Amino acid sequence: MARGGKFSRKSDVGQRIPTSSMADIAFLLLVFFMVTTIFKLEDGLPVEMPKAEAAIQIPRERVSHIWIDRLGNISINDKLMHVEQIEGVVYKKLLENPNLIVAFNTDKQTPFDIVDDVMEELKQANATRVSFTADFEKKGS
Questions:
Q1: Mean pLDDT across 64-84
Q2: Radius of gyration of the chain (CA)
Q3: What are the φ/ψ torsions at residue 36 (nearest 5 degrees)?
Q4: CA distance 65 to 92
Q5: Is 119 strand, coil or helix?
Q6: Given this model, what pLDDT does residue 9 score?
Q7: Secondary structure of residue 101 in the 3-state scheme
Q8: Higher model confidence: residue 46 or residue 2?
């Protein structure tokens, strides 16, 4: 005890947040988000493709996919649309990329009149490079 019955404190207790492992935590969070992030590619509509015996892979940036399911629903870039809207959308895409290839992804049970209507819209948009997509099938399968 100090004189006069008073206590005196000599130690200075401060409040500090430990930051020694902050970089490790930030790195682990970065790795976690990189691993769990999903980069969504075009899903289109659920279609069952017809089978083909030969196929050619085309670079993704040169292709625009049109999806048509067996009920006649049409999708371009994951957006549902009507047949009448296709000409405008494809025309804008052709202005951005004159070498654009339009790929049809149609269900094997899609009514042909819908495919024909879409082809007419592509003619109006002057889309002359058209590809019909199919699943690859080995001979004898």
A1: 87
A2: 30
A3: -90, -10
A4: 14
A5: helix
A6: 65
A7: strand
A8: 46
Distance (Å, whole) CA 59 – CA 82:
27
Give the tens place of pLDDT for each residue, 8-24.
666 666 677 777 788 88
Helix runs in 15-82, H state only: 22-36
Structure-derived torsion over alpha carbons of residues 39, 44, 45, 50, reported in degrees to the nearest 10? -110
Q: Which CATH number fits domain 51-136: 3.40.50.1820, 3.40.50.300, 3.50.50.60, 3.30.420.270?
A: 3.30.420.270
H/E element holding 131?
Answer: strand 130-132
Question: What are the tokens at 45?
Answer: 């509509």
The C-alpha atoms of residue 131 and residue 49 are separated, in whole angstroms, by 13
Does the pLDDT value for residue 30 go beyond 80?
A: yes
Q: Quote the tokens at residue 105.
A: 């992804």
Prediction pTM value: 0.55
Rounded distance between C-alpha atoms, residue 77 and residue 79, angstroms: 5
